Each structure stands twice: as C-alpha cells, then as structure tokens.
Amino acid sequence: MSASNEVPQAPTTAAFFLQAAIAFAVSLATAVVGILYLPIDPWQRGFLAITMLFLTSSTFTLAKVVRDRQEQTSVRARIDGARMDKLIAEHDPFKNVA
C-alpha cells in the first residue's frame, strides 16, 4: 500500500493541541522579548519584528497548505478505493466462461 492510499489518522487529542498551542505561544513570546531587549537601533528592531511577523504568518500558511494537500490526497485515495471495491463487487469471474 502506498503512502497516498493510507487511511487518515484519528484527530489529535486535546492534550496534544494544548501542548502545541503553549509551545507556539512561548516561542513567539520569547522571540518578542529577545527582539525588545537587543542592544540595537529601533529600525533594526523593527526589521526583526516585521521579519518575525512574516515568518509566523508564512508558517501558518504553509501548515494549512500541507494539511489541505494531505486531506485532498486521503479523500482521493478513499474515492479510488471505493471505485475499486465497486468494480470488484460487480465483477463476475464466471460470466464469460461457458
């Protein structure tokens, strides 16, 4: 069975979701604090802040695209599997034998 035909996994647990949300919040907060306390000029601090904002939004977009592609593949795999099951169920191996 190839990777595109795998059965989708069960949804994530609430604990895993909470752990991921906390990890994101902590990493974003520490990056903001780090930028605020760097001994640099305000324009450099602003550049780093805009870069971090762009990186964060790009990460969300990439995660959504990857998830959407995985869901599309798994739905297509289920449809292909259902078509194959229908063909097998309708096939009569003794129909042309006589």
Automatic annotation (TrEMBL):
Pfam families in the record: YiaAB
Residues annotated as signal peptide: none
Transmembrane segments annotated in the record for this chain: 12-40
The entry's keywords: Membrane, Transmembrane, Transmembrane helix
Residue ranges annotated for the YiaAB two helix domain, each copy included: 16-68
InterPro entries linked to this entry: YiaA-like, YiaAB
Name under which the protein is recorded: YiaA/YiaB family inner membrane protein
